[in-house]
Amino acid sequence: MRIYFYIIAMAFALLQFTSCQEEELDRNSIFTDEPTTEKNSFDQWLKKNYTDTYNIKLIYRLEDMETDFNYTLAPADFIMAQKLAKVVKYTWLEAYDEVAGLDFTCTYVPKIIHMVGSPAYEETGSVVLGQAEGGLKITLYMVNYFTLDAATLNSLYFETMHHEFVHILHQTKNYDTEFQRISEGNYVDNDWYLSDDEEAQAKGFVNAYASSQPDEDFAETIAIYVSIKPTEWKELLSKAGENGASLIVRKLNMARQYMSETWNINLDELRNVTQRRLSDVTDGTLDLSPVATLDETD
C-alpha cells in the first residue's frame, strides 16, 4: 500500500507510506456476478473502457464495502471523476498498451480503482492522498481537486499507480537481489520520514520514502523516473551530488535491465510514451468533455 500524506501547516509537505503484498494474478474477469442496477452514460462508458477492456472495476461512488471508515470522506464529483477516468486510461493504461501490449496490461494491472472526492484527514493533521492495496485495488483521493497540471497529476495519482504496478511485476518475477546491495546498510525502514528528499538523494535514493527498504527503493526509482520530466530527473541527480547520483543511476540501470529482460519493456520508451501522453492531457489535446451530465446521476 502506498499512501501520500500532506502535512497541514504553512504549506503541504508530501510524504509516502507503503506496504505491499503479493497477489495471485488472474486474466479472467472478477466482476461477472455484480448486481444489475440502472446505469448512466458514464457507467456504460466505464464498462466498455475499463471493465470490458481491462477487467477493471472503477468505482466513483462512495460504497460502504470499499470505503475506509477511519476517515470522513466526500464522494467524487461526477464531472471530475469522468475527467480523471479519461486521463488514467489515456496516460497510464494505454501507455502500457502502447509499449507492452493490451494483454500484458489486462493481466497485471490492479482490478479495482476507487475514486474519492476528498483527502482523508488523519488525527495528526496529515492528509492521505492515495492508497494502493496489495496489487488489487488503488484508491485515489482528492478527485475533486483534479487539475490539468502535470506535477499535481503525478503527485496525486500517477506516482502511486506506477509504484504499485512495479510491485505487482516484481512480486510476479523478482528483480536481481544485487539491487539491494547498492544501498545495503543505509535502509532505515519506518524512520524514512526523518529525512527530507534532498538528504535521501544525497545518499542514493530518489526520495526519502525510497530509503525505507529495497522493494520500495526499486518501485520508487521506476515510478519517479517514468513520471517526472527529463529536466526534473536531471535536477534530481544534480541535487543528489556526485556520489548520490552515481548510486541512483546504478539503480536505474538495473531497473532498465529488469524491465527489458523480464518484461520486454524498454523503460525509456515507457517514459517517453507516458510523458507524451501526459502532455496531451495538460495541453488540452485529450478530450475531457463528460460523457454523462449531472441530470443522469442517481
From TrEMBL:
Family matches, as InterPro entries: LP_HExxH_w_TonB
Domain of life from the UniProt record: Bacteria
Signal sequence segment: 1-22
Keyword set, alphabetical order: Signal
Pfam families: Peptidase_Mx1
Keyword Signal recorded: yes
NCBIfam families documented for this protein: LP_HExxH_w_tonB
Name the UniProt record assigns to this protein: Substrate import-associated zinc metallohydrolase lipoprotein
Lineage per the UniProt record: Bacteria, Pseudomonadati, Bacteroidota, Bacteroidia, Bacteroidales
